[in-house]
Design goal:
Helices cover 31% and strands 24% of the residues. By secondary structure, the protein is α/β, with parallel strands linked by helices. It binds zinc ion (ZN). Zinc ion (ZN) binds next to loops.
Amino acid sequence: MKILISADLEGVSGIVHPSETNPGGYDYERSRALMTAEVNAAVAGVLEAVPGAEVLVADAHGPFRNLLPEELDRRARLVRGKPRPLGMLAGLDDDTDAVLFVGYHARSGAGPAVLAHTISDAVLDVRLDGRPVGEIGLNAALAGFHGAPVVLISGDDVACAELLELVPGAATVAVKQALGQAAAIALHPDEARERLHRIAAKAIRRHDQVPLLIMPGPLKVEVDLYGPYTVDVATLIPGVSRAPGGRTVTFTAEDVAQAYRLVQLLTQLAQIKPN
Ligand SMILES: [Zn+2]
């Protein structure tokens, strides 16, 4: 059995503020340890359910270099660094049996939800065939494209609800209750880890009962970008055109995998400044 754990940081218990999630920020180093411990709890749950399973952990926050390699459960392998075609799900392939989202957050515009955003602040919204999707939707659809169900999510209550709307039957571990973009009522980290361990084991045992999220292509993709200059740069890509409104670019993707790659690239383009 092959399992992928995709680990983000904003949805880890106790974390509420950008300074805790941005490298160099106040308490960022503490956040890395909290993140690694929550991932280890999920790894332990998976391996309790299926001893000997192959477990990959994709570091999926910011620079994709947050998890502390030496602190990670040695039975798992770590996917680290960027860019990579499968982004937050790197390590996924057609043999993957199930995917778990640990430390995930709600999409841009949802909420109130802790640190809600979609990929980066450069992106205001992403729509697939008119339906707004955040990282949860994009990644669940990419997992579904490769035949893997998302069997568990941990994060705040809003992130959990966001996955359930797309994947009824997935297990949820709400480690905090959102009070706003930068405020929450959180479980003690030990309590969060205990629940993750227990519920991950349960989710893996019933992984074949969780439906795949299938978004068939071709897909109309619309991306609202924060920066007008980023819109200008994005429309240099063949197939990407300007949509009405000044902030939106659109393209047709033959499938979710192609949509995912191009959305990642659009996000990276925001780093290009006028020269
Ligand atoms: Zn993140």
